[in-house]
Amino acid sequence: MNQSDDHGAESESDALLMRLKAVRENIARAALSCGRDPDSVTLVAASKTQDGQAIAPLIKAGQIVFGENRVQEAQSKWPALRALNPSVELRLIGPLQSNKTRDAVSLFDVIETLDRPSLARALASEIQRQGRQPRLYVEVNTGAEPQKAGVLPGEIDGFLLACRADFGLAVTGLMCVPPVGEQASPHFALLAKIASRHGLRELSMGMSTDYPLAIQLGATHVRVGTALFGSRSQR
Ligand SMILES: *Cc1c(COP(=O)(O)O)cnc(C)c1O
Description:
Blueprint: H1 3-33, E1 42-46, H2 52-60, E2 65-68, H3 71-82, E3 89-92, H4 101-107, E4 110-114, H5 117-130, E5 135-139, H6 156-165, E6 171-175, H7 185-197, E7 202-204, H8 211-216, E8 221-224, H9 226-229
Parallel strand pairs: 1-2, 1-8, 2-3, 3-4, 4-5, 5-6, 6-7
Bound molecules: pyridoxal-5'-phosphate.
Pyridoxal-5'-phosphate is lined by residues 46, 48, 69, 93-94, 177, 207-208, 223-227.
């Protein structure tokens, strides 16, 4: 690496740390604006497509919760990164194929995308086999979009019951990704309502463009990528 590259890397990580500070401030402001404790909201850094060089400065700055979309990508980069800080919490926020269940259970601390009975069955048997218990959220397809993963709002009560009764799984939260180009607030409100009906405390909702709104509607976890790392297409 020559000197100018070195400077480039340095200013890139400075910019990253400034964006981290800004996101943290926005989270605190949104929480306080509705009478919530800022510490009741966890920033999940959505680090898909980001390499170790982009992620390491965030870990050093105390960001320890990360969300990844793909099991394989996470497997290739996180074992080394976790060595920087063993308390890193890794979350799966993308769809999980049943044939990746084994790897997902061994790698992730939280799986946010439980969305069908066959996956519930596969997770239950892997959790039993490995004796490792990631926390589980159910993804809800709040907009009932045909191409999107997630349990339909009309089927969520039955699915949560089945998770507990048929598969012995303890679900602790819900997650959603509202439809692109629609107002997000009705989707966030719906997710919060379902969670409260089932006594679920954790709500993963809100991304770069709408996390302050999600916090006002009850998010405990916001998944922020672009606002932290910059635009993915630029890298
Ligand atoms: C990429 C991604 C995010 C972060 O999106 P940004 O708009 O970049 O903040 C959040 N949640 C999921 C499921 C994602 O795939």
